[in-house]
Amino acid sequence: MPFIRGYGTTRFLSDGTMRNGEPAAIAVDTIALLDALKIEKPVIGGFDWGGRTANIIAALWPERCKAMVSVSGYLIGSQAAGKVPLPPKAELQWWYQFYFATDRGGEGYDKYRRDFSRLIWQLASPQWNFDDATFERSAAAFDNPDHVAIVIHNYRWRLALAEGEAKYEELEKRLAQAPTISVPTITLEGDANGAPHAEPGAYAQKFSGQYEHRTVTGGIGHNLPQEAPQAFAQAIVDVANG
Prior knowledge:
By secondary structure, the protein is of the alpha/beta class.
């Protein structure tokens, strides 16, 4: 698994490149990686930012995606959608998005990125009793010098508080139409996901090809690939085999 921009060992080649975390940019990075590795048509799976990236590739470049596994279903959004107020209970779940909209939030995340991320893990996966070693293996990826800039830009972009780049504008316009996904897909959801997420019935119609949803039980939270690796891997195998 490669590190996306802003994480782990991935680095920008130029100090002058915009530290852009908008969804289309991350998807284009992934297509470029496939090109570099000469991987023509993989099965793509992921959760959270990875799930959204998989959705975008499957929607905009179906010829480059054999099939998809997406945790929490259909995750394609837009700045217009991000502007729509939600009921108070739903807004509360997005508290960190509003925190990141402020200078205090950016500085606070930079100063306390490990404490912040551990808290998110606990809130998003309330029944996952991960140990310090498990957390630290992932947290090391947050030490990337561009990490905070990418994360803050991503969340501010969602609320239309930060501009993207013109070269991604047409892609974002297409994504704002909430395109359906035609490639074979299995969506997964943990039975104890504490992060904001839609019910499976709300997005089933967004998948027009061969489609199946699976709920993974046993106190599985937001980070399903790590909490239930067998279920995630089995979904990859099954969707690949049709």
